[in-house]
Structures are given as C-alpha cells and as structure tokens.
Amino acid sequence: MEAFFEDLGEKRFRAHQVMKWIYHRHVTEFSEMTDVGKALRAKLEARAEIRPPNVLFDKPSVDGTHKWLLGMDAGNAIEAVFIPDKGRGTLCVSSQVGCGLNCQFCSTATQGFNRNLSTAEIIGQVWVASKHLGNKTHLDRKLTNVVMMGMGEPLLNFDNVVCAMSIMRDDLGFGLANKRVTLSTSGLVPMIDRLGEESDVALAVSLHAPNDALRTELIPLNKKYPIAELMDACVRYLRRKRKGESVTFEYTLMRGVNDSPAIARELVRLMKSFANQMQYADAAKVNLIPFNPFPGTRFERSGEEEIRAFQRILLDAGVLTMVRRTRGDDIDAACGQLKGQVMDRTRRQAEFRRRLEEGAPPHAA
Ligand code: SF4
Questions:
Q1: CA distances from 353 to 51, 67, 232, 282, 358 (A)
Q2: What 3-state class would DSSP assign to 152?
Q3: Which residues of this UniProt protein bind S-adenosyl-L-methionine (predicted)?
Q4: Ligand 1 centroid to residue 180 C-alpha, Å
C-alpha cells in the first residue's frame, strides 16, 4: 500500500490513513475519508476501488454462530463462519474455491476445485465479518481469532494466504496477535517448513489417524507425506517459535473408523513422542471433533460415550485434549460441512453426484 501511494507521488503515511479507514472503520468510499485531502481523494477515486466481497446471504444459527456465503466470480461462492464463545470470537476463513485434495470425511472435497482465492478475497472475509459484528480493532474486539480452516488447503495458496494473514496481524489491519491466527493444514510437509520461514502464526494439523494405513485411507495426501515426516515438520516448526507454544492436532471422530481405545492409545504414543522431542509436555494439543455428517457421506459421528472414553485415554496419559463442541450445524456451518458453490474444474463433483444417485458409497471413487 505504501508503494502504491509513492507511485501516486504521495507520502507513505497516506497508506496508513487509508488502511485505518478500511480495516478499523469499515469505510469503502474515499469521499468519507475526512483526513485525506480532497485532491488525493479524487486521485484515489480515479485510480482505485475498495470492493468487499459480495454477500449472497448470511445466516445466523440458533447458537450464535454466523455463516456468510460470499460470491466470487463466475458462479463461485465461498463460505466464512463466525463462532462466538466465552471471551472469544473466532472466524473460520476459506483459502480456495473448493479443494483439490480429497479428504474422505470432508464436504468441501465433494465439491471439487476451481481456483485459489486472492489476498483481497481472503482478507475480505474477515472484513465482512468484522463490519457485521461492529468489531473495533484495538478498542472493542468482537473478532479475536482467525482460523484458516474453511474451504481449501491454505498451504496450496501460500503467497496469498501469508499476505492476508499479515494484514490480519498488522496494527493497521485487524491487529491480531500471532498466536490468534491459526493456519490448519492437511500436512504439506515442505510448505510447513516454508511457513516457518515466512510467518509466525499458530499451526494446526488435520491428523485424524495415528497410523499411516488409516490416515492414507482418510487423507490421500498422507501417501506422499506420511505421519513420521509430518511430525518432524511440526517439530521443526515449533522449534522456531518461543518455548511453550504448541501445535494443535485436529482429530475428527468417526464411529468405528478411528475411535477405538486401541487407536486412542496409538495416538497417545504419537503425541508423547512429539512432546518428548520438544521436551515439554504441552507441545501437542489434541482437538477432538465429533464428525459432522453431510448428505452422501459414508461416515457417522461417534457416540457420546466413545468420545468421552477416547478423550479419557488421552487425558489420563497426560495429553492435553479438548472436545470441540459442534456449533452451527443447523446452518451447515459446522466443521467439515462447508460447501459454498464451486464451478468444479475437476470431475469430482459430478462423480460424487453420480455415485450418490446410484446409491454407491460416494467417497469410494
Ligand atoms: S479437509 Fe481441508 S484439505 Fe481436506 S479436502 Fe477438506 S478442505 Fe481440503
């Protein structure tokens, strides 16, 4: 932004003024930027536009969760979800239109893939939510955390995601602390290393299974980057950060698939070995997510008893483990349920529909 103003023959601090109008006050008209001189406002109107994403609809849930469907180009739309909780408000942000990976338990995966989102389209999701909530950066924060956990694999859209996350954390942007911005990945090992070099956000990993046979079945990417390599990358990532920080391992519990006591004990060993390498107990946090069903899925949510028993095994072994309460499932905004509208460039969406109509297991393809 500073370079843009220099190109206009203006001082760099003008960028700071405009950033504050956009991100702190949600102003999209140059004419309303009263501390910017008239001549510069006219110049800006001729050269630039401030265009937030187009809200196709927004939907509140009975539990306070809020979902936005945001129109992109050519019939594409993505989703962002706000989840209020005690003392915090978390926005789940999308990074791609659809997703090219094919995690078997994920609704986005059934939609196929269209394209990466631009930096503007990513930060625009935060802007829309921030405006809706009446969020005031540095004054009255309604939006306290952002998780790059919506549609898409964020590390496959590296540059745009890293740039958007820097605006989330910048004082002239949304001013969030590093640890309040989390990137969640399905495990692209080389890109985790690159993220460590270029950014300082919190890391979450979609683990969902403690051994390669099961994880490859659920997350095909595991074939390329097996668990041992993934865990080594997490160790390298965390070693770059201040001692005491942790990696969150997301674990979706599916009945009869990955929720047995034997698998819980295997997960304990994996988490313990990670903590041993880091040399502090809470280096790994496990987030158990009861599976959220979507039409056509072959998986079911684990029972309440199995979920508690699984958590108990981890806790008893000293692994910090939380169960994520399901939020927003009345508006299909729960974890793993985001779909948007994807003009699919792969054949996955059509294939999924065909198998659904035929009554075959849709994800077996
Ligand atoms: S879980 Fe994430 S990476 Fe896997 S298919 Fe869904 S959106 Fe893509």
A1: 35, 25, 38, 43, 9
A2: coil
A3: 152-153, 184, 206-208, 292
A4: 21
Confidence of residue 111 (pLDDT cuts 50, 70, 90): confident
Class of domain 53-364: alpha beta
- The answer to whether the CB of 101 is under 6 A from ligand 1 is yes
Ligand 1 centre distance from Cα of residue 91 (Å) = 17
Site to substitute for ligand 1 among 81, 92, 99, most atoms within 8 A of C-beta: 99
The answer to whether the CB of 109 is under 6 A from ligand 1 is yes
- pLDDT band (50, 70, 90) for residue 365: very low
**Contact at 8 Å (CB) between 130 and 174?**
yes
End-to-end CA distance of the chain: 46
Give residue for tokens 């959220």.
Answer: 292
Looking at the predicted structure, is the pLDDT value of residue 38 above 80?
yes
Q: How confident is the model at residue 40 (pLDDT cuts 50, 70, 90)?
A: very high
Give dist(CA 276, CA 293) in Å, integer.
Answer: 35
- Where exactly are the structural domains of the chain? 1-50, 53-364
| Residues that constitute the known binding site for S-adenosyl-L-methionine | 152-153, 184, 206-208, 292
Cα of 102 to ligand 1 centre, how many Å? 7
What would the pLDDT profile of 290-316 be if each residue is shown by its tens digit? 998 888 899 999 999 999 999 999 999
Our measurement of the distance from residue 335's CA atom to the centroid of its chain's CA atoms, rounded to an integer in Å, reads 10
